[in-house]
Structure formats: structure tokens, C-alpha cells
Design a protein that fits this description.
Layout: E1 2-6, H1 18-27, E2 32-36, H2 42-46, E3 51-54, H3 59-64, E4 70-72, H4 84-88, E5 92-94, H5 97-116, H6 119-127, H7 133-138, E6 150-154, H8 158-169, E7 173-177, E8 191-193, H9 198-204, E9 207-210, H10 224-227, E10 235-238, H11 247-255, E11 261-264, E12 284-286, H12 297-314
Parallel strand pairs: 1-2, 1-3, 3-4, 4-5, 6-7, 6-9, 7-8, 9-10, 10-11, 11-12
Helix pairs in contact: 5-8
């Protein structure tokens, strides 16, 4: 069996460290492991590969992989792998949703608390050496408690479920929208709406958290009309993909004060261009796609991938399989 790893990215944390392939080779001595830094000439390595670990794949690359049985994405998102040939073929696709879910959920709670307690304002005044008790208290909305507030989750996968558990533990009421509301939900979620009931969730939520996968149906899901459904003192938090939000419509809503603010970890274009109005919008908290940051990231990846490799060798079902027709 042969495994090919190619997870090139300009950001060092997203690159598989050298020890990753070395440990795989040590733990599975009968398997050939090839770890590449670039995609250039990858077709040669793919011809006899059984397993591919990567972010994305082109049609010509997939056609070169005559033996491929399993593709794993180190991200929760798999839209970069959903080419027609993969969707129609027998190859199994898995993702890292359970690797990222708990970590991203912690980031969501950090953003909720930062917004509720007006921490971005406190930092701005700190840089000015201003003791701003009065100024922060007079801001709208005022600092608030999160216990008793309603958190609305758009998406109830691993990130959504983990966020719901943490929010409920802090006394928040959690509601959610998912494509299949009839499916069992975690006890932390008080109510689940169907996808056609998104407006009801937006109207009821104090914090709207986007944790849905990027598909044809979710692209620009939060548009001008849906932003108008949110409470004027509610916040939008996006830790999914930037394309779920119509950015010009969001900027307009923020500048006109139609919502209280937003905390954004992901954007339509990354890195966020210096000329983007979002940088200078006072009621926006920006984090640089850092919600999944953890020093334990690749240890967590290794635990999942090595377990799935054992399962593959034993002929058992793999963990975190993706429904290729649905795209998540």
C-alpha cells in the first residue's frame, strides 16, 4: 500500500510536519509513505497510490490515480475535492471535522465573550491610554451577560455540536438550523429548525454562528435580506467559509447599524485585502482564519489518520466519511 501526502500551504501550521510521514512509516512499516511539498509532477506519485491526504484535487490528477481507495482532507471543508470524478467514483472521502470541531468551538465562545464584554473597544482604548469606563458603557449595545442569551447555530456538524455544548454550559439557550432537522441532535440544543426556517432562527438569535459547509446551497447564504432578519443588537460570527456571507451586504448592514457587529475568522478572499472596508469597520472583530490554531493540531490529525489507516487495512468503515453527493 502507498500513501501520498501533499498539503502544501503558505502558512506553516497547515503544512504536514516532517515527523508526520516518518511516524506513519514507523507505525506501519509495510506501507510506503510519500510526503511532498508541492503538487508539481504529483501524477507520477498518484499512479500507484492507494491513499491521498490533501486539500484539493484536479480532474487530471484524479484520473492518474488508478488505485486510489481513500482521500482524506486535513480540513473540515471538502469542496476542493468535490470534482465530478470523485463524486461519481468509488473512492471514499473523509475529513478532519472531529479534529477541528472542539478547537473551533472554543474560538467561537471566545468571540461571543469578547463581543458581549466589548473587549475590542477596551483594546482600542488601551492603545490610546484612555480609562474608558464611561465610553464603553455608553456604546451600543452595552456590555451584557451571555447567560440567558440565544445562540443560533447555522450548521450542526462537529463544530456546531461542540459549540452548542460549551454555550449551554455557560447558560445560553441554543437553537440551530440544519438541512435534516429530523436527525437526532445533541441535548445541548433546545430547538432545531429546517433549512427553510433560517429566518426564524435569525430573528430569535442574539449571536448567529455560521458553522455550515460551503456548498452550492450555502454560498451567499447570509445575504442582504437575511441580514435584515437579524435583531439590531445581534452579532454575526463566521467560522465556516467566507463565501457563506455576501460581504458587501454585510459591510452595508454594519455601517448602517442594522446589526450590532460581527466577528469574522474567514473571508471570501484570503488573506483579507488591505483595502477591504472590514478592516476599518469599528464593530467588526477580525481573526485571520485562526480558529483552528492549536499546538496539538498535527497530533490530533495523526490520531485520526492512523486510526482510519488501521480500519482500512482491516476492512472496517472509516471515521468521518463524507457524503459526496451532499458535499459534507
Amino acid at each position: 500500500m502507498k500513501i501520498v501526502i501533499v498539503v502544501y500551504h503558505r502558512f506553516e501550521l497547515w503544512q504536514a510536519p516532517p515527523w508526520f510521514s516518518e511516524r506513519l512509516q514507523s507505525d506501519f512499516p509495510g506501507i510506503q509513505v510519500v510526503q511532498r511539498k508541492t503538487y508539481g509532477g504529483i501524477e507520477d506519485d498518484l499512479r500507484d497510490a492507494d491513499v491521498l491526504i490533501t486539500w484539493s484535487l484536479r480532474s487530471e490528477q484524479f484520473r492518474a490515480a488508478r488505485k486510489l481507495r481513500w482521500i482524506h482532507s486535513p480540513a473540515a471543508a471538502v469542496h476542493g475535492l468535490m470534482i465530478p470524478e470523485v463524486i461519481a467514483g468509488d473512492v471514499v472521502v473523509t475529513n478532519a471535522r472531529d479534529v477541528h470541531g472542539p478547537v473551533v468551538a472554543e474560538h467561537v465562545i471566545a468571540l461571543v465573550l469578547a463581543l458581549a464584554k466589548r473587549l475590542p473597544s477596551a483594546v482600542r482604548y488601551q492603545l490610546k491610554r484612555t480609562w474608558a469606563q464611561q465610553q464603553i458603557w455608553r456604546e451600543s449595545p452595552r456590555p451584557r451577560e451571555i447567560a440567558g442569551a440565544t445562540l443560533g447555530l447555522v450548521g450542526l456538524g462537529s463544530i456546531g455540536v461542540e459549540t452548542a455544548k460549551r454555550a449551554a454550559a455557560l447558560g445560553m439557550s441554543v437553537i440551530a438550523v440544519r438541512e435534516h432537522p429530523e436527525m437526532p441532535s445533541d441535548a445541548s440544543v433546545n430547538k432545531v429548525f429546517g433549512a427553510n426556517e433560517l429566518e426564524e432562527l435569525l430573528q430569535a438569535s442574539d449571536y448567529v454562528v455560521l458553522a455550515a459547509p460551503l456548498t452550492a446551497r450555502t454560498r451567499a447564504l447570509i445575504n442582504r435580506d437575511r441580514l435584515r432578519q437579524m435583531k439590531p443588537d445581534a452579532y454575526l460570527i463566521n467560522v465556516s467559509r467566507g463565501a457563506l456571507v455576501d460581504e458587501p451586504a454585510l459591510i452595508e448592514a454594519l455601517k448602517q447599524g442594522r446589526i450590532a457587529g460581527a466577528a469574522l475568522d474567514v473571508f471570501e478572499k484570503e488573506p483579507l485585502p488591505p483595502q477591504s472596508p472590514l478592516w476599518k469597520t469599528a464593530n467588526v472583530l477580525i481573526t485571520p482564519h485562526s480558529a483552528a490554531f492549536t499546538e496539538r493540531l498535527w497530533e490530533r490529525h495523526y490520531a485520526l489518520i492512523s486510526e482510519n489507516l488501521r480500519r482500512l487495512l482491516a476492512g472496517m468503515p472509516l471515521l468521518n466519511t463524507v457524503d459526496k453527493r451532499r458535499g459534507y
